[in-house]
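User: structure tokens for this one?
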Amino acid sequence: MLKLFSGTANPLLSREVSGLLKIPLSKAVVVRFDNSEVKVSVNEKVKDALCVVIQPTSNPTDTHLMELFYFADALKRGGAKEIIAIIPYFGYSRQNREHLPGEAVSANVVIRFLETIGINAVYTVNLHDEGTEGIFSITFKNLSAFNILGKEVAHFLKNNKNLEEVAIVSPDQGGVERAQNFAEKFFHTNKVDIAVIEKRRNLNVPHKSQALNLFGKVRNKTCILVDDIITSGGTLVHAADFCLKRGAKRVLACVVHHDFSPGAADTLSKSKIEKIFMSNTIALKPNQKLPQLKEISIAPLLAQEINNLI
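Assistant:
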């Protein structure tokens, strides 16, 4: 018996998954008190059930994490046989190493909480660094939204999609493997050249980076910038400008998570990026919508994985 629960971080995505599976969302109540405390009540019998909770841990990250922990505790107390957390966007994933002396490695801390609270398996989508998978001692699966996003980009380009006309660009050195994986799925071949933006990040100033150089052929091509997360939008905009200065015909972007900081939507809307293809791992606020943004649902991806559990 499978019970499907939704946290409050992205209820629309949960409802889409529920509709595709034809499994109703199980009853639960999340109460937020004036002193900022949260209470989660599961109002279903879950004894010996396989329970799946869909909850991105996006902004406000700490609030959504605590809510997920309370769901796990309530389900465990109710006698759930197994608890699976589907975390489409895994908060703190970029804090997966000690960048400066004395820093906490926050991703490790979150993983230990998930394991200790009684969660048996974690599914996420395009984790920032796949190496983080090795930290988990419980079942972990990292899904990719690039197949779904890539099909939308291909449809947008229609016939303009061969190796000579399109360049896949990584906006920083750390995303080369990610861009390569996207390119192989997009072109159905591994004989793909990747252009790379050399970037310098200021570790003392959050969301601050500078594009220094571009390596690869982009002249007279449609450039597709591939990344996993947009926060301020600065990295993507600088990369697009660099491509255009090097002779690119136009620039598109394909990014999984829109973890927008204040001002990101305005920055992106004023950029020269023609179209930005993104998934709905994170619920988009009304003031974060922009004309260039094309949001594609990952509900079919999640529904397929959950269906495999039944």
